Amino acid sequence: MAVSLPADSHALTSAPEPAAGGWQHLTAPLPADWQRAGQLADDWDFAQDILDPDERSWLRRDGARVFITLQFPVKGNDADVDSWEQRPLGIILQGNRITTVLARDFAPLSPFFAQMEHLSSPPESVEILAAILKILAQSYEDALHQLNAAIHDNEQQLDWTQSNGDFFTLLEISKSLTRFEVALVGNIATAFKISRLPEIRDDLPATQQIDTALLELQVAHERARVYAGTSTSMMDAYAGMVQNNINHGLKVVTVLAMIFYVPSLLATLYGVNTTLPFQKTDWIFWAVLGLGTSISTGLALIFRRKGWI
Length: 309
Known about the structure:
Layout: E1 11-13, E2 22-27, H1 31-36, H2 44-50, E3 58-62, E4 65-75, E5 84-94, E6 97-102, H3 110-117, H4 125-160, H5 164-195, H6 198-201, H7 204-269, H8 284-305
Parallel strand pairs: 2-6
Antiparallel strand pairs: 1-2, 3-4, 4-5, 5-6
């Protein structure tokens, strides 16, 4: 699915005429930017795929070129909600030349790209790819650390308030963790394919770094799975607790209504405008009051012993 962006957001962060080797970066490229970067017109569909925020991680080889997409975690636009999204990074690997493509810059990669732009001689393409995978694994670790802290903060808040807003916050955290699980599965599969590329296997340091990043991604996936299960269990537990509190409140109201029902009934009977037994005697008022109070007190003691009030 192609995604159109405003014209002023398109930028080309590389030399117009790329050399046979090196690194170049494209942010939301236009077709003209794509061609100036030395890319084939037939590969323009790949650039459009990167503009789609829902693009999944994958790897495809086309002759001497390797096309890769990886999903990075990005904090959502709402600063008040712990919501995270996934944004794809496109990579074209061709020998010692590597091109990275983004729909828009985001925090995990911005410092790395800024550092790369100031290097007089960029590292080898496989070293850049290995560094990107390392950043990918670290970005998920950082995001999971923030989400875990948000879970603990939300748990303490729920202990005090149990408000709908806190439940919605926990729901957003759970949704973010579920998205992390799905994205990490694709990233792990893609990283494994990258580690098996001939270009990578010929470079021992890059191979070791990619294998380390792959292991860290697997650990991050396991953490995301555990945190997602924890958040889901918390939601179920607090939902059950809220329902139990509602039931307890209804039970207390019902018990109190039963306690006050008897004196109310007696007062109603002796308040009707008709002839009643003993209504002209002086002690009937105190008798009705005492009878109602005794019955209510007895019911209250019974319910108290049962723990209902």
